[in-house]
Design a protein that fits this description.
Helices cover 26% and strands 24% of the residues. By secondary structure, the chain is of the alpha+beta class. Keywords: Hydrolase, Magnesium, Manganese, Metal-binding.
Length: 268
């Protein structure tokens, strides 16, 4: 089974000049999921495409077709995927560059950038609609994987902290998007259906490990963060997860995104 990493790069062109290239070059993962790529295929930095070719990576990209320079997800694999699917069957959402699946032998790897909401605004309405449609899709995908005997992992920025352990200031965020009761119920319902929160399974009683910190103030230095970047896996794959780490930068000025990569090592 592979090692899988996921990272919201907060713009691949900016991240490429801040340390993303070095991180990819040093990765021993078999699959890397990226979110907020914010680039069309011909806008991906040449330095990155050259690096991927040098290290044997295959890039599958699903950019936003509705908002140039926004959203966009990608999956890097060591071999060309057997199949690629963009979106999950919703005409409005599928063109936004928010969901991509690739099949490699025995495994489906998905990269997700779930809509970010703002309580009491149209953005939250859009996020809630996404949750409704995507939640149904994930249940279907789980059931299909069980029938097919094929494992699946959905990686990415879910923009949801599922429990009080998943953000430092949970008391002051009760009414903020990302920690709303109905969002957390949505996540819990997926786990009840059979999906496994791999990082939480491996770190059951710890705060975090956080994967996002605002650039404002000293949030990163004080580890005032949120755990919103997840790997959601089918049970067979989750049972093989041996180690999960957030690859936190050593210092604030060494960050190449406001998120940190989340890496899980799965063993046979």
């Amino acid at each position: 089974m592979p090692t899988v990493s996921t990272a919201n790069v907060n713009g691949v062109r900016a991240a490429a000049g801040k340390g993303l290239l070095e991180w990819v070059a040093g990765s021993d993962a078999e699959a890397i999921c990226l979110q907020e790529v914010r680039a069309l295929p011909d806008e991906v930095p040449v330095a990155l495409t050259d690096l991927l070719a040098e290290h044997g990576w295959w890039l599958t990209l699903a950019p936003s077709e509705t908002a140039k320079g926004r959203s966009g997800v990608a999956v890097l694999t060591r071999t060309e995927p057997d199949a690629v699917r963009i979106g999950f069957g919703d005409d409005e959402i599928d063109v936004q560059g928010r969901y991509l699946e690739v099949d490699v032998p025995g495994l489906t790897v998905a990269s997700l950038y779930l809509t970010k909401g703002v309580t009491g605004t149209d953005k939250q309405v859009a996020k809630d609609r996404f949750l409704d449609v995507f939640g149904l899709y994930l249940r279907t995908a789980f059931d299909r994987s069980a029938v097919d005997g094929r494992e699946m992992v959905v990686c990415g920025d879910f923009n949801i902290a599922p429990t009080e352990l998943d953000l430092r200031n949970h008391r002051t965020n009760q009414k903020n998007s990302g920690f709303l009761p109905h969002e957390r119920r949505w996540w819990a319902d997926l786990l009840d259906h059979g999906w496994v929160d791999v990082v939480r399974e491996l770190h059951p009683d710890t705060d975090g490990p956080y994967s996002w910190w605002t650039y404002r103030g000293r949030a990163f230095d004080n580890d005032v963060g949120w755990r919103i970047d997840h790997q959601l896996a089918t049970p067979g794959l989750a049972a093989r997860a041996k180690d999960a780490v957030v690859e936190r930068a050593p210092a604030h000025d060494r960050r190449w995104s406001d998120h940190a990569p989340v890496t899980v090592r799965y063993e046979a």
